[in-house]
Amino acid sequence: MTEFRHHPTIETLARYAAGHMCEAQSVVIATHAVACPDCRNEIHDFEALGGAALETIEPVAMSAGAEDRFWATLEADDAQLKAPIERPKPADETPPRIEAAAPLQTYLQGGLDNVAWRPLAPGVSQAVLMANGYRRGALRLLRIQPGTSIPRHSHEDSELTLILRGAYDDELGRYAEGDVADLDGLAHHSPTAVSDEPCICLIATNAPLKFDGLVGKLMQPFVGL
Amino acid sequence: MTDPKSLNGSRAEETSAEMSALLGKVAETRCRASFSTIYAYFAPRLKAYMMRLGADESQAEDLAQEALLKVWRKSGLYAPEKSAASTWIFAIARNLRIDALRKEIRPEFDPSDPAHAPEPETPADEALDRARRDERVREAFRTLPGPQEEVVKMYFFEDEPHSAIAEKLGLPLGTVKSRLRLAFSKVREQLGDLR
After folding, report:
1. What is the SS3 assignment for B106?
2. Do the bridges between strand A138-144 and strand A199-205 make them parallel or antiparallel, or are there none, so unpaired?
3. DSSP B114
4. With an 8 Å Cβ cutoff, is B32 touching chain A?
């Protein structure tokens, strides 16, 4: 079992479990959770808490005949009523690399080796992924060549970074494959890619990407790392 | 005189365990009578949940129906030893609501929709005692001091919980956040030895 050093905070896992997260950040958490049993367990705890709360909610009566309509809907599609019972498939013995995790694959058609990278700065390129849920957010990939450093910067709002390949070092330690950097607006850091291969990160912000003016275009990618 | 809170508490425990057993039966045999009891208990609660989160009454009823259709269709994936029925149904309703809201923005079929992603499986060893842990979470929730129980409920039932709780309870945002953090850590404390 892979041991991760850096996990999302409890507050972040609660936001995910309660359904309060933008789609972009949900992708990061769901992908990390595929590989991290500890976080999966924490998420389940919060879902159990949500279930307990649901039991205590003041019920609102369904309209007359609602249950009849429910069964009629199922009967109209006879196949659904009689469909063979779907059984869970056994989990894989060896978990796949984090980049192959199902929640990420749905956003990464063609995989990490077929990304259309756009250069941003010497040694740094990015690709924006489509993840528009009903809460605004932005999802993108960043590729940092070995030895390249990102200038010291801080964050706007909350930002989640998941390492997909390689590793980087910053003031908070080493972040390697599967680790999540869960940084709030106060954190300042300057990451340096330290692996032999380029460091590829999946980054989710809970605000849309802004590209205002040339300086903004150049600096924007560094705001979020 | 009997303490009404503990009486309700133990009855609620029974109901909760009964729902898990019934859903387990549906999973095994597609028993319609068992599902009918589940429907009677959860449909009005799911409708209330959707309304609390901003749906109007008819939308909320549709979403509750859809959630229960999903519960029926996926029931073969439910295992009573892995999770309480309320945990499992809560997660389905939460996802359904997020998907419904996404479709309002992206109505066209989208193959990258996470709703099409396969459900992650729980490895067998991890599932062990998971249902007992769910019971402990519920117990911890029910023994939270009133104000903490209140913010936890609102956390799950408000769309923008921090600001909504602050406004409804007339509390500063910082107090809301620390009260929530306290409630969460109290629940986790009670689970500590089960890990």
Report:
1. coil
2. antiparallel
3. G
4. yes
Per-residue model confidence (pLDDT) at position B118: 45
Tell me which residue in B44, B74, B106 faces A60 most closely, judged by beta carbons. B44
CB-nearest partner of B44 from A14, A19, A59: A59
Q: What is the tens place of the pLDDT at every residue in B120-143?
A: 555 555 555 788 889 999 999 999
CA distance B93 to chain A (A): 10
Size of the A and B interface in Cβ pairs below 8 Å: 201
Q: What is the C-alpha separation between B150 and B172, in angstroms, rounded?
A: 16
Does any CB of chain B come closer than 8 Å to the CB of residue A69? Answer: yes
Which pLDDT band, with edges at 50, 70 and 90, does A105 fall under?
Answer: confident
Angle at the Cα of B89 from the Cα atoms of B84 and B90, rounded to 5 degrees: 100
Distance CA B109, CA A212 (A): 31
CA distance A199 to B96: 35
- pLDDT tens-digit readout, B68-118: 999 999 999 998 988 999 999 999 999 999 988 887 766 554 444 444 444
- In angstroms, the first-to-last Cα distance of chain A is 27
pLDDT of residue B103: 77
Q: Which of A66, A56, A81, A75 is nearest to B40 (CA)?
A: A66
Asked if A91 and A35 count as a contact pair (C-beta separation under 8 A), the reply is no
Tokens 């066209």 sit on residue? B108
Please give the ipTM for the structure prediction: 0.89
**CA dist., res. B38 & res. B86, Å (int):** 10
